[in-house]
Design a protein that fits this description.
By secondary structure, the chain is mainly α. It has helices spanning 12-37, 42-71, 86-94, 102-131. Helix 2 crosses helix 3. The mean pLDDT is 88.
């Protein structure tokens, strides 16, 4: 399924850089989600997680585009953020109905991680309360 993905068009170091950027974006998004939603109710955390995911879908293309500008000579400086498309794209990524590529599927996994995380936190907290 992924053999035709543009990821494989990059040099080995280009792929490493893309993996590093993607990992950093994932960790940053998870950290921001935890910081802003840690003490909120599970439902407010869920809504906040979805909001943060929509922001990620909206803003991350610009970060990746700037990385591609480093890799590809002559790529023009331009704005690639399309905020009006982000909610629909986020829904497509979470349901895996978007493009069939590593980028879309990785964003879908991030979306599911952000959806499940508030429920894991609540279960962990209630387990600690029972042990006291």
């Amino acid at each position: 399924m992924y053999l035709q993905d543009s990821f494989f068009d990059l040099s080995p170091w280009g792929r490493v850089g893309l993996i590093v950027i993607s990992t950093c974006l994932f960790l940053f998004t998870a950290f921001i989600t935890r910081v802003f939603l840690d003490k909120k109710s599970v439902w407010l955390s869920l809504l906040g997680s979805l909001g943060i995911f929509v922001l990620f879908v909206c803003l991350s293309p610009q970060i990746y585009y700037m990385y591609y500008r480093i890799l590809i000579d002559g790529l023009p400086l331009q704005w690639v953020i399309k905020p009006l498309e982000a909610p629909l794209a986020a829904l497509k990524y979470i349901t895996f109905q978007g493009p069939k590529n590593l980028s879309a599927h990785s964003q879908g996994l991030l979306g599911w991680f952000l959806i499940v995380a508030p429920f894991l936190r609540i279960n962990k907290t209630s387990g600690q309360a029972r042990n006291r």
